[in-house]
């Protein structure tokens, strides 16, 4: 593995960015966090002496170039609202133009399973066809195509790291977050159904150390890789384990595809979830053997331990109420 120059986390304020930043800090690496809001970045990274805070406008290649100046590696974590996935390809186009102009050597996109569409059989390897049948899958695929097409252009090396659904302490955008809050507060948890289908989740704090090793591995670039979770588990099993830690039984409100359609009449986010509900009935499970063969053993937190940490985090941060 090679030594690293300075790393930039574009779209750093989310949970994935925080996981990678933590791993870089442990490794003693200086890094730059880039986002639209200085206040949000300062709140999250202001106490880390390794972190440099920079704001940008991702719609402006000149702003991207300024944010990337002096960086060797850019890790792209930029999210868009769920109903604005059409932004993904053009934002990536502008980012690639900006980082290339800045002389960045490496770019890593943290991706999803969306570009695969329906799995032909689980677990799937990297050679599974990319045949998205959803709009969001097609937009993510177009984003990936731009990243991989840029590999070898003006000295830039690129790769894509695909993740399944994720969870972690305080990770509010996880499918499982409401379960932990419900367990900690004795409130009824709202979950997306069906909840008895085995599903794969990555414990997000496990991401950072893998990315830190991957970015220093020259052989990794020019293709995509999988990082899987610690096996599969059902949402009902997660709920049982989390509520058992609180000494009570789960109280769940399950929203299936039909309910999502109804809720979508009033809530744009619920309307957007309908399209991707196939992942709840036909999950995509990843095989990350190739990544392990490349960089060595992948540290994975067990579901039992991850659930315990998430429950404890929810109990510390969310005010509880008495059980009726």
TrEMBL record:
Domain of life, source organism: Bacteria
Gene3D superfamilies (alphabetical): NAD(P)-binding Rossmann-like Domain
Residue ranges annotated for the NAD-dependent epimerase/dehydratase domain, each copy included: 10-219
Pfam families tied to this protein: Epimerase
Residues in coiled coil: none
Cross-referenced InterPro entries: Epimerase_deHydtase (IPR001509), NAD(P)-bd_dom_sf (IPR036291), NAD(P)-dependent_oxidoreduct (IPR051783)
Name this polypeptide is given: NAD-dependent epimerase/dehydratase family protein
Organism of derivation: Paraburkholderia podalyriae
